[in-house]
């Protein structure tokens, strides 16, 4: 499932986003900053899905046409910006997938949402190109920059975005989640939690890893 309720920890971020939705005060640009596997993309997906949900609540209904499209990655107004070079998001990537596309009105929703994963890989030219769009975005646009290093962005980008910093999730919350969803005994969950150090994604990878479990045995 993909709702705010399914996000483990990160209460402040959930509250901020849901309050923004209910008050209809959505920023045009967000930076979601946190270490690798900490849940940035899941938060972005839930937020995007909720914004586009036809029921208009603070949780995605998961039943409407838009939610079903989003769950299968086919929502035409939720766009995932990709890059072919593994270590660089180029100015061409930003121009073709974001700047040139954002001027076209949403296909079927009230917003047009762009999710840029690994946004720290944008080079200087790409950041400058993005800045032009962030400075004067269309009313329907929402840009989500997911990054492990918000400090790599130009100060002008930082000043125009709402930055949400992911925090380490308490061990007990992660342990409870692992035991419930991966049917692992508490001693094994304890080991995963100890290695993960507050990172839910790492804990899940460890709980699901046969190698790790054999190593522990």
SSE arrangement, N to C: HEHHEHEHEHEHHHH
Oligomeric composition of the shown chains = single chain
Overall 3D shape: globular
| Percent of sequence in beta strands | 5-15%
Helical segment count:
10
Query: Level of helix content?
Result: 40-55%
The rounded Rg comes to 18 Å
Physical arrangement of strands within the biggest beta sheet: 2-3-4-1-5
Our measurement of the CA-to-CA distance between the termini, rounded to an integer number of angstroms, reads 32 Å
The count of β-strands is 5
Look at the structure and give the mean pLDDT: 92
Structural class: alpha/beta
Can you offer a commentary on this structure?
- With 217 residues, this protein is of the alpha/beta class.
- 46% of the residues lie in helices and 12% in strands.
- The protein contains ten helices and five strands; from the N terminus they run αβααβαβαβαβαααα.
- It has helices at residues 11-22, 40-52, 65-71, 91-102, 124-135, 155-160, 171-182, 186-196, 200-207, 210-216, and strands at 29-33, 78-81, 112-116, 141-147, 162-165.
- Strands 2-3-4-1-5 form a five-stranded parallel β-sheet, sandwiched between helices.
- The longest helix has 13 residues, at 40-52.
- It is globular, with a radius of gyration of 18 Å.
- The mean pLDDT is 92.
């Amino acid at each position: 499932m993909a709702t705010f309720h399914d996000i483990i920890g990160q209460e402040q971020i959930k509250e901020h986003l849901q309050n923004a939705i209910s008050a209809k005060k959505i920023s045009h640009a967000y930076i979601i900053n946190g270490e690798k596997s900490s849940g940035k993309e899941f938060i972005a997906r839930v937020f995007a899905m909720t914004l586009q949900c036809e029921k208009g609540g603070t949780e995605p209904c998961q039943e409407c046409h838009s939610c079903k499209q989003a769950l299968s990655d086919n929502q035409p107004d939720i766009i995932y910006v990709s890059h072919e070079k593994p270590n660089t998001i180029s100015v061409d990537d930003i121009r073709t997938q974001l700047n040139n596309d954002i001027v076209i009105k949403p296909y079927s929703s009230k917003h047009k949402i762009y999710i840029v994963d690994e946004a720290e890989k944008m080079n200087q030219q790409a950041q400058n190109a993005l800045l032009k769009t962030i400075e004067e975005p269309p009313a329907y646009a929402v840009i989500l920059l997911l990054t492990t290093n918000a400090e790599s962005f130009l100060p002008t980008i930082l000043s125009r975005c709402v930055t949400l910093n992911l925090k380490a999730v308490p061990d007990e919350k992660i342990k409870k989640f692992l035991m419930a969803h991966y049917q692992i005994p508490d001693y094994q969950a304890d080991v995963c939690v100890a290695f993960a150090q507050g990172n839910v994604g790492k804990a899940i990878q460890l709980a699901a890893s046969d190698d790790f479990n054999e190593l522990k045995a």
